[in-house]
Amino acid sequence: MAGKHLKRVAAPRKWPITRKTSTWVAKPTPGAHSEENGMPLLIVLRDILGLADKSKEIKQILHEGKVLVDGKVRKDHRFIVGMFDVITIPALELSYRVMIGGNGKLKLVKVTDAGTKLCKIVNKTAVKGGKIQLNFHDGTTMLASNDFHTKDSVLLSVPEKKITEHLPYNVGSFVMVVDGKHAGTLGTVKNINVVKSSSANTVTIEGKDGQFDTIEDYIFVVGKDSPVLELGVKA
């Protein structure tokens, strides 16, 4: 059993689930997001949205192709979803974006812009033919020009995954903090503090409640002056 399940009490801290209602919880299939930063569709549909009480019922809903992630039908109840993924249930005419809450846990935000998704560039590599491959936070890749840099974000149309807007990471960028004690906070980058050691760079953010510092890796560019997507957070 443990191969496809994990102890509920040991589930990642970002999963918005109760810890003592049962012993086991579905373990996500290895995929785009890490287990720490994503959760299986079963939890989303049963525990958060309450579409059914039993795992068997959720599996049937998925088997019938009634749930889309980023515009594509997903039938695996263990399929992992994470930050900025869009879950759509056509029969209910509802779409949700996976976001991070102020409590540091993943949450769903009801949206009307299900045809768009933000991706952060976490790496880029040169591939055969002199082309540049962008590697995104959700595990997907794309060939593009060398105009893009790591830590930049791109706005994609889904399911086509075509870049519709480039959001550079620099002083003045509008960002969301996606981890740490300021998780879920929006603000503008005021200063990028480069640390000349093995320690992580830090960033000074101007939020609605004043300035604070956070680790650079916790930053996700979501706009230039304001969010380009519905995020469920007031700027």
Would you write up a description of this structure?
The protein is mainly β and 235 residues long. It has 3 domains: 5-110, Roll (Structural Genomics Hypothetical 15.5 Kd Protein In mrcA-pckA Intergenic Region, Chain A), CATH 3.10.290; 116-167, Ribosomal protein S4, central domain (OB fold (Dihydrolipoamide Acetyltransferase, E2P), Beta Barrel); 174-223, SH3 type barrels, CATH 2.30.30. Helix content is 7%, strand content 40%. It is built from 2 helices and 19 strands. The protein has helices at residues 41-48, 55-63, and strands at 5-7, 24-26, 38-40, 68-69, 72-73, 80-82, 86-89, 94-100, 106-110, 116-127, 131-136, 141-144, 153-157, 162-167, 174-177, 186-193, 202-207, 210-215, 219-223. It is globular, with a radius of gyration of 18 Å.
Element layout with pairings:
Elements: E1 5-7, E2 24-26, E3 38-40, H1 41-48, H2 55-63, E4 68-69, E5 72-73, E6 80-82, E7 86-89, E8 94-100, E9 106-110, E10 116-127, E11 131-136, E12 141-144, E13 153-157, E14 162-167, E15 174-177, E16 186-193, E17 202-207, E18 210-215, E19 219-223
Antiparallel strand pairs: 1-2, 3-6, 4-5, 4-7, 7-8, 8-9, 10-11, 10-13, 11-12, 13-14, 15-16, 15-19, 16-17, 17-18
